[in-house]
Automatic annotation (TrEMBL):
It comes from the Eukaryota. Signal peptide: none annotated. Pfam families: Peptidase_M16_C. This is Peptidase m16. Residues 34-151 form the Peptidase M16 C-terminal domain. One of its GO terms (molecular function) is metal ion binding. It comes from Tetraselmis sp. GSL018.
Length: 241
């Protein structure tokens, strides 16, 4: 098993425990991300009818100036009428629920992740990559999509202050992180002001469909033949340390 490339027989098999320890060292984590870029990791789950697919790459923190632009792009990708929903569920019928977007932690870099459960993981991976490639090439976001995404983001802000507890929690978070008290208002204005050109530039900086790392958890007997046809390095990822 393991990597199906040259020298695979002599390569140590990665484990979740080993990967966790490597994340404690930022330089080691960066090297691990580079090593994993473009690869598919297979977790064997015997007897599972569906496979769980997770596609990921390093993302940004909330402090990144591209955060508002990617927030808008997040809305373009997700939800009813979003590009992932339209392609993966409505058009291809590959999964009932699919998602993709950036998590933006306030103090460290997060991840871009996309994923779904499906009986055809290879086709799902190709469909998600097609959506992401389209954003970067022949199907950039339209102004109509951008306006709708901004309105959706603006409406969602209301729920950040839906209760006194949420208001206090947000104020405390701002104090701890050293953010200005009107940070929420500033961020909302940044989303309203972001341009189509800025959204496209942010997408080009932070979306790399061919280099994203993919983890598929499913019955190896069923999914390995599918994944082998993707033309990516295919590696086994044992669950045990």
């Amino acid at each position: 098993m393991g990597d199906h490339g040259a020298g695979a027989a002599n390569s140590p098999r990665p484990t979740l425990a080993a990967a966790w320890h490597r994340l404690e060292d930022p330089e080691a984590a960066e090297a691990a991300a580079a090593e994993a870029a473009g690869a598919v990791y297979l977790v064997d789950k015997p007897g599972e009818r569906e496979a769980s697919v997770l596609i990921a790459e390093p993302g940004i923190s909330l402090q990144d100036p591209d955060a508002p632009a990617l927030d808008v792009l997040d809305d373009i990708l997700n939800g009813f009428g979003g590009r992932l929903f339209d392609e993966v569920r409505s058009k291809e019928g590959l999964s009932y629920s699919v998602y993709g977007g950036w998590e933006t932690p306030p103090t460290h870099v997060g991840l871009f992740t996309a994923g779904a459960n499906t009986e055809d993981p290879a086709a799902l991976i190709q469909a998600v990559e097609s959506v992401l490639d389209g954003l970067l090439s022949d199907r950039p976001p339209t102004q109509l999509e951008i306006d709708a995404a901004k309105a959706s983001a603006k409406n969602s802000f209301v729920f950040n202050f839906a209760s006194p507890q949420q208001q206090l929690s947000r104020i405390l978070t701002y104090r701890v992180l050293g953010l200005p008290e009107d940070y929420f208002i500033q961020y909302q204005r940044a989303i309203e002001a972001v341009s189509r050109e800025e959204i496209m530039a942010a997408a080009e900086r932070h979306l790399h469909p061919g280099r994203q790392t993919i983890v598929v958890a499913g019955d190896e007997r069923l999914v390995r033949p599918q994944l082998s046809g993707l033309g990516r390095p295919l590696r086994e990822l044992p669950l045990s340390p």
